[in-house]
């Protein structure tokens, strides 16, 4: 995990939330695990345009902060690793659902703006 040279100020709830859940794919990873997609490769495949390396890094950060648990079945070969949400991870789900609703309501606007942005480049 990347460590900044300067101490971060975590005196604001928003900063704390972004520390734990900020990142390009973390909320998508949590959503995938919540939907039953538990294996690292499956999580990667479910998130279009992601790279396995970034997914693995963000899984490691979510694991470090206790948002997810890693379960490995040692009795089978090759070992089967899966992730599941902890109670802390589940606590973000109502907020994630609201973000999903907001994105659905405003998706046409964002798509339109995105295409305008691409045309202007």
From TrEMBL:
Stored Pfam families: HxlR
UniProt xrefs under PROSITE patterns: HTH_HXLR
Annotated protein name in UniProt: Helix-turn-helix transcriptional regulator
Keywords from the UniProt entry: DNA-binding, Transcription, Transcription regulation
Residue ranges of every copy of the HTH hxlR-type domain listed in the record: 12-111
InterPro entries: HTH_HxlR (IPR002577), WH-like_DNA-bd_sf (IPR036388), WH_DNA-bd_sf (IPR036390)
GO MF term (any one): DNA binding
């Amino acid at each position: 995990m990347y460590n900044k040279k300067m101490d971060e100020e975590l005196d604001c709830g928003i900063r704390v939330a972004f520390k734990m859940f900020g990142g390009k794919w973390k909320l998508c990873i949590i959503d995938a695990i919540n939907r039953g997609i538990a294996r690292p490769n499956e999580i990667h495949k479910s998130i279009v345009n992601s790279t396995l390396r970034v997914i693995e890094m963000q899984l490691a950060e979510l694991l470090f902060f206790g948002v997810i648990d890693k379960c490995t079945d040692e009795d089978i070969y090759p070992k089967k690793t899966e992730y599941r949400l902890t109670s802390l991870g589940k606590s973000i789900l109502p907020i994630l659902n609201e973000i999903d609703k907001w994105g659905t309501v405003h998706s046409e606007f964002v798509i339109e703006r995105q295409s305008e942005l691409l045309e202007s480049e």
